[in-house]
Amino acid sequence: MAKFTIKNLLCAMAIPALAVSGSAIVSAADDPWQAAHGQFVSAFNERDWSAVAAIMTDDSVFHRASSDTVYTGPKAIVERFSSTIGANDQWNVKFAKLDTTESITGKDGRVVERGVFAVTAGADSNACYAGSYLMTWKIADDDAKLQTLAWQDVEVDIGMCK
Predict the structure, then answer these.
(1) Residue 21 belongs to what H/E stretch?
(2) pLDDT tens digits for range 101-147
C-alpha cells in the first residue's frame, strides 16, 4: 500500500486533470487566475473574509493535509480561516509568500496551480511554516474562482518568512 504524503496527494489531484484534459503547462502573466491568486493572498492577510469567500466557487474545497477534516463551500472554509487559522487570537497565519511553481490549463479552462508557500504564525508572528500547496481555479468569462485549496506545511526557521 502506498504511503500517504502531500506529494502523493498533489500528484493524485493534478495528474488526472492533465491526463483527461490533454492540457498544457502555461505561465502567462495576465491570466485571470493569477490576478485572483493575488487577491486571495491580499484578502486573507487583510482578514477581509467576505472578499476571500467571493473568490471561491460554491463547491470549493479546503484541506490541510495534516488534518482529517475537509471543508467544503466558502462559508465553511472562511469559518475555518477566521476562527483559527487566520484569527489574530489563535494561529494568526499570514502569507509571507505563495509562489506558483507550475500551472496546468485543462481543455475545460480550469487551471491547476501548485507551488511553495511560507506563512508567519503566532500572536507576534514569530513562527514560520513553509510547504507546498495546490489550487484549482475555475475560469468563466475571464473571471477566476478558487475551487480547490490544499496545503501541507512544516515549521521552519523564521528566516524563510522574511
Answers:
(1) helix 6-21
(2) 999 999 999 999 999 999 999 888 899 999 999 999 999 988 999 99
* 30: confidence class by pLDDT, cuts 50, 70, 90: low
In-domain check, residue 132 = yes
Is residue 1 in some structural domain? no
**CB 120, CB 155: distance < 8 Å:** no
| Domain with 147 in it | 6-161
Phi, psi for residue 42 in degrees, rounded to 5: -60, -50
Say which residues have a Cβ less than 8 Å from residue 113's Cβ, sequence separation at least 6. Answer: 33, 37, 100, 102, 103, 134, 135, 136, 137
The answer to whether residues 113 and 33 touch, using CB atoms and an 8 Å cutoff, is yes
Q: What is the pTM of this model?
A: 0.79
Q: Looking at the 3D structure of the chain, how many domains does it have?
A: 1
CATH number of the domain enclosing 124: 3.10.450.50
Greatest CA separation found in the chain?
46
| Within-domain flag for 128 | yes
pLDDT at residue 60 greater than cutoff 60? yes
